[in-house]
Design goal:
Shape: elongated
Number of strands: 0
Largest sheet: none
Order of helices and strands: HHHHHH
Strand content: under 5%
Number of helices: 6
Radius of gyration: 27 Å
Helix content: over 70%
Length: 172
Amino acid sequence: MNHSEYPLINQLLDRYYAGLATTEQTAQLLALLNTHPNLSDDLKKELRVIEAIESTGRQIDIPEDIDTRLISAIDKISASKIKPRRHILNYFTIGSAACLLLCAGITASYMLTREPESRYHVVTDPEETIHYIAYADQQLTDCFQKARQASQQAESNIDKVFNKISKHLNQQ
């Protein structure tokens, strides 16, 4: 991962992951990552990985054929455990479209059955205006809260997958 705003960190990371970093360079990299005031989330994750590797206290020998073994393992997992989710997306899309059409139909039916003069409500009372604004604000806040929770859940799931892959690699 290229972090152009951190050239020294980027260079040390490249050397570290290539297996070319000296003990001093690794210590320098850890010091930079631990003391940098505005470290990006990606680099914080890099720090966690490096600290986990360095905490083992031993040299990790990486087999020459690791890339083919990883690709093979991923292919096996993909073929056996992971089911295509394309149909879920299709169901979600169709369901969403059906809900939108249903809402549009109900709204159109409601609007057509009302008296023309009562179709629109003009708000002239400041208190009522404040009420509607507060209601809209609450709805937006709830929506953003749900989006934030979904984002946090996704990040948690990514971390779990990352941890499982790390454990699997450490066991081999």
